[in-house]
Specification:
Chain lengths: 538, 424, 330, 333
């Protein structure tokens, strides 16, 4: 585990160093032990090749501005030298998550690449078949376009690790064979869950299918035992599979959300009250429970409830549990407070919850009639749920005179126009990592110009200060408080109107597979089907 | 036998050696053929160049570019995106990119795919080509054969029940919504009746221990099939060429064909690939039948309509008067003169089978060139999209060229320039 | 002034003889030509009416047209748009997709929209798409095919090479590019499709057929009789090629409807609702693998597509007899 | 010696949408081996339909009401189609009216003739067949090396000769020539007719000439039959019919021809037009146009009655001419 940071001065420059000790019982699949050399190499090689050039996940994990170098101290400990004190995002959830590669195998290849004219292209062109791995599985055969088979890795270091979770939140990791033991919190009281690592299956077969129909039919016919699908099963399949014998369905929440964003740089979307009025109009429960019949669930905060530790539940929820007429009345009040007016003001009858007169011709605070604007929505083909949400939102806005025109658009087109900030309003979605630093990247003013991640061009100096301090925050508890305050601020300003998300529904052959646990954020498929802990029934 | 007939005053009718058929005529044709060929090849290259330019700039005009992939992960900084663009050469002005692309193309290098960086485009195409050829060429040939045979029959008996029935069935399948029909057939045959494999092109259990990869076996199949086709063509050309079309010669021809196929099976067995080839064939049955059901009506109706013209010709009446058997009259007189449009559509559809079919590939999980074309086109992967489009496009251009040459063979009245020969 | 004996309009008069025009009349030429065209039109209609196949095809197409016209009436007066709107409508009373029920004769789709309303709404669009792509591709395609065969040489090469390029053309990216410039609704899509189909496969196949017609003796006879090139093409080559081009009319309509469905499903065309789209939505929502149970999700739209395209074939078959005198004599 | 071909009271109608067309009505005649029959009549009088009926090549909307055709003693329509197929071109062959497109444009002319020979003579090899084609081409006056050219490379006259060569290919015992020389100019026509006549005489082959041109028929046929509106009006020896026509229609026909030999005189024409065969006039079908028509003619259909040893006519009020030959007498009204 990493030691806390201490400041050191080495040949004139100040560094923040931390030494990390490595488990001694791990081996590569070719039998060689995993040592500090491999760890040091896994950081120094990408630094030498410049992570940005490497692309993929490298720039995210290894940030050349912060990480200066990694030195090997002895066979099983390394020392990290950083130029500045890293926050949780850069250290625990950043650098320490990087991949460790076998130096014996990759060393010569990287050296040869460095000498070539275009080192990255040279390196990426290398065919990594037969590369020693540390994971539970080794690739046995890969038939392109048809299937991939894996065999258990004989030298799998973590085989036999028993992780025990206690009701009081304590956690013990113990491997009786190799004597490794590691605990956090006081390990006593009743055990909530105990999982023993180690592949129990002698062969793993992945079949590559091109559409969900084929997958579900194969599942029902018994040709496959589990369907790996990042979108989860559609409603029709769920209903059918629930009724099919010896097939179990699993429902998990997903770490992401679908949202609607306005281009704040364009008048009048910059006005907070306008966004709040639109948020109030949107009846999320009506669509998720009635129209989509429970396939999706309403969501109000920028951090999904699935990410329990960071999720702030008491966030301002605009228009929650309001009837149709109450929403319209509230929205009209908000718009009026910001100086909007109408050619024909919408009238509602609160008791009978009826819309007496539909609003027409919204006039902006600057006196001019609001021009109709384009609300880009996913097409029915790409994502029927977002398509339905978008259309309904469009109808509700038109109902009170907001001249919104719903335009189903191709995903690439939406990405391009939001990237170039050439749009009015759009509806997209994000899938996120565990550490909520996405709030910094989405809403920090530095990301506002074209090409950055702050597509809605939200600029709030107070928020910027808060998000920068959150990013640099090493302490978990303080980081959580800051995250909660950020969520409250965003719920008030509503740069994103968070709409909904869908639980991930998966199915597997209950007569053949037995999973130690099935409640996991983003579903079983997020952990590759938990192949190393699943057990065969017969 | 006519007794030695001496025309009044002519020399006595000594037996004269029979003239060889078409000798000097062929010589005349060869010359015009060569001149025509050169012209056509020139046109082919020019068309290809124009086509490539249009495709390339169409790709550039597509909204967005490949680096958008990085927009999905918030942690990746701006620098990485610019770096990727530089790496892929997207930062150079489009015109220079185009020039380098053309230079590379004519040196046989289709460039490197963006989405499967740094795999070369050739590599991806070659990986998927055998699979596509085996499935789609077989399907096309089968649907053409069924359509051709049925078309001749229903044109010959216009108005009979077989005509009405075949047309109604053909039309319903032709106009059926293709994705829907394939789903129904999969559900019916593979799932409910459980007769045929559900999808994919090989059975994993069998192939894990296979000494070959599926692509090599597909390669063998393409090679084997073309050798067999050539052999069968030669056999029929030798036995059925003459006008002597007796029962005996037909039986001999079929026996020889069976022999060739038997030999092929024995070789496959000897090399140990037979079970694998059989597994692929088993997986092919459902997609090929679906494609045939969908497409046979096209050829059938095409053949029927073009044959209705020739059925009423006088030489067909003359042929029946000559006492030739009915199928000879139908095939060598009526059908033979109506071949032009049908053969053209066959040659064109064979070429287009190179580019596979997106719906079939998705429904039957048979990843081929069709998916590559679609994903690359949508995913802004310029080199892969352009490379795949041009690669399959060449086949079509060559096919059209072959069709033009065939016209002259099919109908002597049409000379090589595609215009009628000077009237005799 | 009688037209040339070889012109199809004149030639096809059935048994009853045409009254001979005495030259003394004073009517202007165009009037005579108009009257003759009207008469030949009437004659053709007589002949077309005879063919049962052609008439039933025509009736089906008219029925589709009427069904499509019914939509504005139904949505404005009979149905409540909130429930019956093909795209946004939702019926809160039922569990969706519900089988046919009192309020929804053909049941509802997985997102709660009424299937009958969707069918009616998209009929108008599919009708437009079908007619446009059929007419454009047949008219333009036939004319080009005949011209290419008749003139040969340079024109033939030009048209054939254009046909090559059009056939090769990546249809999907083209639409994506156009889609990003203008909003691709059904009308521009139908026209683009019509012209693409017209210059592509149909020209090559028709040219092949036209070549066979061109080498026939009566073409030389017509040329000897002083017919202008254009007249020969219009009067001799095209009538003999039309049976094939009518066949292509059906091919193109089917292709149009299937490609429109796949493209709007992948989001390239922003057409809100079409028959093909209905099947695709059902498929993605996972209701299309047990065909017995949720039959109303695929059967009505599948049946409509087949019937609509088949109708064009039947009309084509009927027109065959009008155009091709020898066929009719039988 | 019984007749090679006998047609007995043969009646055949075409079924059309508008009703029945009575194309051939009660025609009967007999043809001995080596004899040449000339069938003459205006176009649309059913002579081609008779030819087609003999060859069993009737379209599908033709229906035989009654009567029999026997060839070499066997009833043509009783034979199984496979059996009759052997007979075609072996026993009886035909020279088509439009010889222009009776040849398949996509095969060489030679091969089409070889095909017929090989089909009917299993033991002949292709080589022998080709040699015979060369001889046939000599016979009809086409250079032998033209055998491997395509039909579109032949002139009109040469196509006609090729079709004749094809008809002779299997030495049939009867050839039906349907307007063989109509498309040709007079000189070539005359040359071909003389050659065909000479070939016929030499191999004692029987022939049926069909033409609307009396001069052609007069030149080549032994017996002449005159047809009008589907019925056989008069049949007999060539001399009887031409020199002593007894049927008013034949009489009229004879006078419709300018004779180069005799004195110049204006031609007599037969008024009116041939009747509509869907609703033929009652009685004798010629009565509306016959100036000698009596009530009986308009009521009762005349049967064929003897007017001479080999001469029969179907008329109630025949034209009487003195038995002395040569001189044509009779009021040309």
């Amino acid at each position: 585990m990493p030691t806390p940071f201490k400041e050191e001065k080495i040949d004139g420059k100040t560094f923040y160093t931390s030494t990390v000790r490595i488990r001694r019982d791990l081996k590569w699949s070719d039998g060689k032990p995993i040592t500090a050399d491999d760890v040091a190499f896994s950081y120094m090689a990408p630094l030498a090749l410049d992570p940005n050039k490497l692309g993929g996940n490298w720039p995210g994990n290894i940030d050349p501005d912060i990480l200066n170098r990694v030195e090997k101290i002895d066979d099983y400990s390394v020392k990290f030298l950083l130029t500045e004190l890293p926050g949780l995002a850069q250290w625990q959830y950043g650098m320490l998550q990087a991949f460790i590669l076998p130096k014996a195998y990759w060393g010569p290849i990287v050296d040869k690449a460095l000498k070539a004219a275009d080192p990255v292209k040279e390196l990426l062109a290398h065919d990594p078949a037969g590369e020693p791995v540390a994971g539970p599985w080794v690739v046995e055969r890969w038939e392109k376009g048809a299937f991939v088979t894996h065999l258990p890795n004989k030298h799998y270091g973590l085989k036999g690790d028993t992780s025990t979770f206690y009701a009081n939140g304590a956690f013990v990791l113990e491997n009786k064979k190799t004597g490794i033991k590691w605990t956090t919190g006081d390990a006593k009281g009743d055990i909530k869950l105990q999982v023993v690592e180690g592949p129990y299956v002698d062969q793993l077969r992945f079949r590559i299918l091109q559409n969900q129909n084929a997958a579900v039919l194969s599942l029902m016919k018994g040709e496959v035992d589990f369907v790996l699908n990042s979108l989860g099963l559609q409603r029709g399949f769920q209903e059918q599979l629930k009724k099919t014998p010896n097939i179990a369905t699993v429902e998990n929440s997903v770490n992401g959300f679908r949202y609607m964003g306005f281009n704040l740089a364009r008048y009048p979307f910059g006005i907070k009250e306008f966004r709040q009025a639109v948020a109030t109009l949107i009846d999320r429960e009506y669509i998720t429970q009635r129209v989509l019949q429970g396939v999706a669930f309403a969501q109000y905060s920028v951090v999904p409830p699935g990410n329990a530790y960071w999720f702030n539940s008491d966030v301002k929820m605009w228009g929650k549990d309001m009837t149709r007429s109450q929403r319209i009345a509230e929205a009209v009040k908000l718009l009026k407070s910001a100086g909007f007016s109408w050619e024909i003001e919408p009238q509602v009858d609160l008791e009978k919850d009826k819309v007496l007169k539909r609003g027409k011709g919204l006039i902006m605070p600057d006196g001019k009639k609001m021009p109709s604007f384009e609300f880009m929505v996913m097409t029915a083909g790409y994502d029927p749920l977002r398509y339905t949400f978008g259309l309904n939102i469009g109808t509700w806005m038109q109902e009170i005179g907001i001249p919104c025109e719903v335009v189903p658009t191709d995903f690439n087109v939406v990405l391009t126009r939001t990237d170039e900030r050439d749009y009015d309003a759009f509806l997209l979605g994000w899938s996120l990592g565990l550490y909520p630093d996405h709030m910094h990247w989405f809403f920090h003013s530095s990301q506002a110009p074209a090409g950055g991640f702050n597509a809605t061009q939200y600029v709030n100096p107070e928020f910027d200060k808060l998000s920068e301090s959150f990013l640099a925050e090493p302490d978990l508890i303080k980081a959580r408080e800051k995250a909660f305050r950020m969520q409250e601020m965003l719920a008030e300003d509503l740069p994103y109107i968070v709409l909904f998300d869908t639980p991930l529904i998966e199915a597997y052959r209950s007569d053949r597979l037995e999973y130690p646990f099935t409640k996991v954020l983003s579903g079983i498929q997020y952990f590759g089907g938990m192949t190393s802990t699943v057990n065969l029934k017969n | 036998m006519i007794p030695g007939h001496a025309r009044a005053g002519g020399p006595s009718g000594a037996l004269r050696p029979a003239p060889r058929f078409g000798r000097e005529q062929l010589k005349a044709r060869v010359i015009t053929m060569r001149r025509y060929m050169l012209g056509r090849v020139g046109q082919l290259v020019l068309t290809l160049l124009i086509y490539m330019t249009m495709v390339y700039f169409l790709m550039q005009a597509m909204p967005g570019d490949i680096s958008q992939v990085y927009l999905a992960n918030p942690r990746i900084p701006q620098a990485a995106r610019l770096e990727l663009k530089k790496q892929l050469g997207l930062d150079r002005p489009p015109f220079f990119q185009y020039l380098s692309y053309i230079k590379n193309f004519f040196t046989g290098n289709l460039g490197v795919s963006f989405s499967h960086y740094p795999r070369p485009v050739w590599d991806i195409l070659v990986e998927r080509l055998p699979r596509t050829i085996v499935l789609f060429v077989t399907a096309n040939c089968l649907s053409f054969y069924v359509g051709f045979v049925l078309g001749r029959i229903i044109a010959w008996q216009r108005g009979a029940t077989v005509d009405r029935m075949a047309t109604v069935v053909g039309i319903t399948f032709w106009t059926a919504f293709y994705p829907l029909l394939s789903l129904i057939l999969i559900w019916l045959f593979a799932f409910t009746l459980n007769r045929l494999p559900l999808n994919q092109f090989i059975e994993p259990a069998l192939w894990i221990k296979a000494p070959f990869t599926s692509n090599t076996v597909f390669g063998y199949m393409v090679l084997g099939a073309s050798v067999i086709a050539l052999a069968v063509f030669l056999i029929f050309w030798v036995f059925r060429r003459g006008l002597r079309r007796t029962r005996r010669s037909a039986a001999m021809a079929w026996a020889m064909t069976a022999g060739v196929i038997g030999l092929a099976i024995w070789i496959a067995h000897a090399t140990g690939t037979l079970i694998y080839i059989w597994d692929i064939i088993r997986h092919m049955i459902l997609p090929v039948c679906t494609l045939t059901l969908i497409n046979f009506a096209g050829t059938m109706l095409l053949m029927r309509d073009s044959m209705l013209e020739t059925v009423q010709e006088d030489y067909v009446m003359a042929a029946r008067a000559k006492g030739l058997p009915d199928n000879v009259v139908r095939d060598r007189y009526a059908a033979r003169n109506a071949l032009l449009p049908t053969v053209t559509s066959l040659v064109l559809s064979l070429a287009s089978s190179m580019s596979g079919g997106l719906v079939t590939e998705t429904m039957f999980s048979w990843p081929g060139i069709g998916q590559v074309l679609f994903r690359a086109a949508i995913g802004n992967d310029y080199p892969l999209a352009t490379g795949a489009l041009v690669f399959t496009g060449v086949f079509l251009l060559v096919a059209h060229f072959v069709a033009d040459v065939l016209y002259a063979f099919l109908d002597p009245r049409i000379s090589y320039t595609g215009q009628p020969a000077a009237e005799g | 002034m009688t037209e040339l004996a070889t012109s199809p309009d004149m030639g096809r008069g059935p048994e009853k003889q045409l009254p001979r025009f005495d030259p003394g009349i004073t009517e202007p030429i165009w009037k005579i030509r108009w009257k003759m065209n009207m008469r030949s039109l009437a004659q053709n209609w007589e002949i077309f009416k005879e063919s049962r196949v052609g008439m039933s095809g025509l009736i089906i197409i008219i029925a589709f047209g009427a069904f499509g016209l019914l939509w504005p009436i139904m949505i404005n007066f009979v149905w409540d748009p909130l429930i019956y709107h093909p795209v946004v409508g939702f019926d809160p009373m039922l569990m969706h997709p519900s089988p046919p029920v009192a309020g929804h004769l053909l049941g509802t789709d997985p997102i709660g929209r009424d299937i009958l309303a969707q069918l009616m709404f998209s009929t108008g669009r599919e009708f437009l798409l079908g007619m446009l792509s059929a007419v454009i591709s047949v008219v333009v395609g036939t004319f080009i095919g005949a011209m290419a065969a008749y003139y040969g040489g340079f024109t033939d090469t030009i048209f054939m090479r254009v046909a090559d390029i059009v056939m090769l053309f990546p249809f999907v990216p083209l639409l994506v590019v156009i889609g990003s410039m203008i909003r691709l609704s059904i009308f521009p899509f139908a026209i683009i499709l019509g012209f693409l189909e017209a210059f592509g496969g149909i020209t090559v196949i028709l040219k092949a057929q036209a070549l066979q017609v061109k080498v026939r003796p009566y073409i030389d006879a017509a040329r000897v009789a002083g017919g202008s090139d254009l007249h020969i093409i219009r009067a001799h080559i095209i009538p003999n090629v039309l049976p094939l081009s009518f066949l292509y009319m059906m091919f193109n309509v089917t292709a149009a409807i299937v490609s429109e469905a796949t493209l709007s499903f992948f989001g390239i065309l922003n057409i809100d609702m079409s028959w093909g789209m209905m099947i695709h939505t059902a498929e993605t929502a996972g209701y299309l693998f047990d065909f017995g149970k949720f039959w109303w999700l695929w059967a009505p739209s599948g049946f409509f597509i087949t019937l609509f395209c088949a109708a064009f074939y039947m009309v084509g078959r009927g027109l065959d007899e009008v155009v091709n005198p020898r066929l009719r004599k039988r | 010696m019984d007749a090679l071909l006998s047609v007995e009271d043969f009646t055949m109608h075409y079924r059309t949408k508008a009703g029945w067309v009575q194309a051939v009505d009660g025609v009967s005649f007999a043809l001995k081996r080596g004899q040449a029959l000339g069938l003459v009549g205006e176009s649309g009088c059913g002579k081609t339909s008779v030819a087609m009926s003999i060859m069993r090549l009737l379209p599908y909307n033709a229906e035989i009401k009654h009567g029999r055709i026997t060839l070499g003693g066997r009833d043509v329509y009783a034979m199984a189609s496979e059996e009759f197929r052997q007979v075609r071109w072996k026993e009886i062959s035909m020279i088509f009216q439009a010889a222009m497109n009776a040849l398949n444009p996509v095969y060489t002319v030679g091969s089409q003739i070889v095909e017929a020979i090989v089909e009917h003579e299993p033991e002949t090899t292709e080589e022998q067949a080709r040699r015979r084609v060369a001889e046939l081409f000599d016979l009809v006056g086409i250079p032998a090396d033209r055998a491997d050219h395509y039909p579109h490379e032949y002139s009109g006259g040469m196509k006609q000769r090729a079709v004749i060569a094809m008809a002779l290919a299997c030495n049939p015992s009867l050839i039906i020539a349907d307007e063989p020389t109509t498309a040709l100019d007079v000189i070539v026509q005359d040359k071909i007719l003389r050659e065909m006549e000479e070939i016929r005489r030499r191999i004692n082959m029987s022939m049926i000439y069909i033409s609307h041109d009396i001069s052609v028929i007069a030149e080549v046929s032994d017996i002449v039959g005159v047809m009008y509106a589907g019925k056989l009006m008069e049949i007999g020896e060539a001399d009887d019919v031409f020199k002593r026509p007894r049927h008013p229609y034949t009489y009229g026909l004879m006078h419709a021809y300018p004779s180069i030999l005799g004195a110049k005189r204006d031609l007599a024409t037969i008024p009116g037009e041939p009747p509509n065969l869907m609703a033929p006039p009652a009685g004798c079908r010629f009565n509306p146009r016959c100036d000698r028509a009596t009530d009986e003619c308009r009521a009762v259909e005349p049967k064929l009655i003897k007017a001479g040893p080999e001469h029969r006519i179907a008329c109630h009020n025949p034209v009487w001419t003195p038995s002395s030959g040569g001189e044509r007498v009779g009021a040309a009204r």
